[in-house]
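Page 42, continued from yesterday. The earlier attempt failed because a stray header line got pasted into the input along with the sequence. Redoing it now with the clean sequence only.
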Amino acid sequence: MQSAPSPAPRRLLDVQAHEWPALAASFAYFFCLLAGYYILRPIRDAMGVAIGAQQLPMLFTLTFAAMLALVPLFGWLCARLPRARLLPVLYGFFALNLAGFWWAMRADVPAHQLGPLFFVWVSVYNLFVVSVFWSFMADLYAPAQAGRLYGTIAAGGSSGAIAGPALTAMFAERLGTPALLLVSAAFLLAAMACIAVLARWARRHPRPAEPHPDQALGGSVLAGLTGVLRSRYLLGICGYLLCYTLLSTVLYFQQVEIVGREVGDRESRTRLFASVDLAVNTLTLLTQVLLFSTLLRRLGPGWMLALMPLASIAGFALLGAAPVLAVLIAFGVLRRAGEFALSKPMRETLFAAVPREERYKAKNFIDTAIYRGGDTASGWLFNGLRALGMSLSAISWAMVPVALGWTALAFWLGRRNSELRRTQEPSPSARV
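This time it went through. Structure tokens are written below.
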């Protein structure tokens, strides 16, 4: 029998003895997903450069259209397949897609034909596989467990986000770009093995008052959309996500302009972005492992959700007063690390308190159609504001009221989440 970890890491991570196998498998699962994605991301970005910046807004729009088309298909699959089959079917489909792209690259399909398709596909792939991962986590873990474990699970993704680019840099010239697609597909297959481990654990530790884990979700194909429209709680999550996407997109477009103005050559920009990514990923990983569960225990869901909105108020105010590179970099590192380490895993815990069908269908609709729709609209909005003559400083000040509204919504969601959790877990010591 495998011995339980020593008391020190158990206290640090706040994990109960029976949860360690599931936590390890969940960590490895998310590691594999993001390692595989971050192998694909530089290939996509290289194709984006070849396509040209003037075409990128249209590709974002095509990605959004693809999301809208796929959401009903995903709902149909959810209604008919239990999760033990749904996730392997989905990941197997994407692995076959990667094999198809590998063949196309080996066959020298022209870049102007393959590039746009691959760019849109990778964007769709990332949102779907990550959304389904967190749906599965919300299915496995009760709300109290999610609060304790999600920070560590998210650290698996951060580790994969570091390992994927490292593998790409190490093997890109040695193996060639087409072979990297097969490496990414291998990570998907490894994720499927983790799913099998977690499915067995779930059968031994089912959540109380939940359907059997091998039971299909049933319901309507459009249940994701209708579920969101019927629920103030889910609409609140949509609003929270839209505020995040608007501010993130505006900051990204400001980064393009400020870096382009203050950093002259391509090599210097590459070094700058690499340094920023390293700082973000390192800070994210440390925060997820060391601070997430402690902060949630001390602050509660409302304050956890509000940390990044509050930081955004200060950050955009500083950018409004001084739209320069140093302010941009400091705010950008803090915002991205805070989003990945705190806001994102905390946002995912919100779905642990909703019915099982909504964990998959409504969540997928929010994570794909709402997220990508907000991202697309925000890009067009920023370009429109610049076309009207607004300066970067004025646009930054205009984002402060949005961040204030985001903060208010965070506290409302925190209160509502606490109410839902109390109805599901009357005793704080309840466990599954």
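Notes: DSSP finds 14 helices and no strands in the chain.
Reminder to self: strip header lines before submitting.
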